[in-house]
Amino acid sequence: MARVRVASVDEVPIETLKAVMADDTEICLAHAEDGNFYAINDVCTHENFLLSGGELFELQVECPQHGSRFNLKTGAVTGLPAVIPTQVYPVEVEGDDVYVELSE
Questions:
Q1: What pLDDT does 89 receive?
Q2: DSSP symbols for 51-69
Q3: Mean pLDDT in each 10-residue stretch from start to end of the chain (104 residues)?
Q4: What's the pTM?
Q5: DSSP SS3 for 12
Q6: Cα separation of 7 and 92, whole Å?
Q7: For domain 2-102, which CATH number applies: 2.60.40.3140, 2.102.10.10, 1.25.40.10, 3.60.21.10?
Q8: Is 70 helix (H, G, I), strand (E, B) or coil?
Q9: Which residues of 90-100 are buried (b: 16+ CB within 10 A; e: fewer)?
Q10: Hey, which residues does 52 pair with through a beta bridge?
Q11: What whole-number distance in Å separates Cα of residue 53 and Cα of residue 45?
C-alpha cells in the first residue's frame, strides 16, 4: 500500500468535499457530518464528471452532472443513473494531516 498525504484537516471543513491527487489518482476527499474523512474515486462511473464538484448528503456524494449517488464507505451506487460502484480508499488522520492509502 502506498500512503500519500493529501490534505490538512483544516483544508476540508466538516460537511465538505475536496478534490485531491494521490500520486496519479484523482480522489474526492469528504469530511462527512459524522466527523470522519472518506476517500472515493473522484470520477463518476456514469460519465466523466468529478464527484468533488457535487454535494455531500450524510454518507453519500452526489455527482453534479446527473445526480448519481455513491456511498462514501463502500463505493456502492445509492442513486441512479450510475450502476457501477466506485472505488474507495482507506483514510488515516495523523495530527493535522490526512493520508489516503492506495493499492500498489
A1: 98
A2: GGGSEEETTEEE-TTT--E
A3: 94 98 96 97 96 96 97 98 97 98 86
A4: 0.95
A5: coil
A6: 11
A7: 2.102.10.10
A8: strand
A9: ebeeeeeebbb
A10: none
A11: 14
